[in-house]
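Example record for the data management plan.
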Amino acid sequence: MKLWIPDRVYFEPAAMEYPMGERILKFCREHQIPILKTTSHNQVRDIPGETEKARFANAKKTLVVGTKKSLKLDVCKPSAHFQFSLMTNCPGSCEYCYLYTTQGKKPYVRVYVNLEETFQTIDRYIEERLPETTVFEAASTGDPLGIEHISGALKETIEHFGQLKKGKLRVVTKFSNVDSLLDAKHNGNTRFRFSVNSPYVIHQFEHNTHSLSERLEGAGKVAEAGYPLGFIIAPIILHENWREGYTELIETMGQNLAFKKKSHITFELIQHRYTNNAKQIILERYPNTKLDMDEKKRVLKFGKYGRTKYVYPKDDAREMKSFISDLIVKHFPNGHIHYFT
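Corresponding structural encoding:
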């Protein structure tokens, strides 16, 4: 299991005034990582590289430490009521990443140190929905576990939710470095979901992430630690021999007794989709990509704010949903398929 270490770290002026900022600064000094200053993440313009591909690679090794300015939370259907950000972007370099649509021009990793303000916002949103329970997603804008060894933000967040009566946390990851979270006082209020895929998709498109076996090992650890557990199979891609690939995935998962003993495992199924903007960025950064983005094989779907994205035709989507759902029912009779989209 290889942990991400940035090549350079930028600090916004206020970042070092927070405990997490001090922790990250200490980490940088211990690992002899160059420490730079910036007035704002928008001023980070000197990332090296003569080509778009080179600049992207170097941005993915750059961490920007700052504060979250806007604390208004977006809705997060269908996985939760709201989403909040511990960080933006991700140490991984998945060719299909949906963040290319919104963060494509700023691929460096950002972490937000004003946790207490975030927690106060979460508490306020919970209060406004009482007596209902409010569910929050912490990994919509990035994978916080990928930098947990640097920030420690996820453990603090889990323990904050552990104290709440009417708040639940959901987090998803392609990483496996969960050891520091196993003793967290989560009180069952955080559902850990691991993003998994067919062997072909992981090998071909999910660069700088942990292997499937490592993710499943991490899933077993959090299950033994009492966390509610789930899996996201995403994005489901109709590649050559996709049925065999997803059969191998589900069978491999079903052989892992450490988490199969859990009586209630959730599954979220998400088909591959892309926007025109994302396609352009993907082709610039991965000119030899094998990701099939032929609009003739897709249909347009309208999303939030009038955005359009390409998804599979209804018959293809129906077949993938049915095929993978049947596999889950067979190998996880106590599993619950939360949604397909």
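Summary line stored alongside the record: Residues 66-340 form a domain with the pyruvate-formate lyase- activating enzyme fold (CATH 3.80.30.30).
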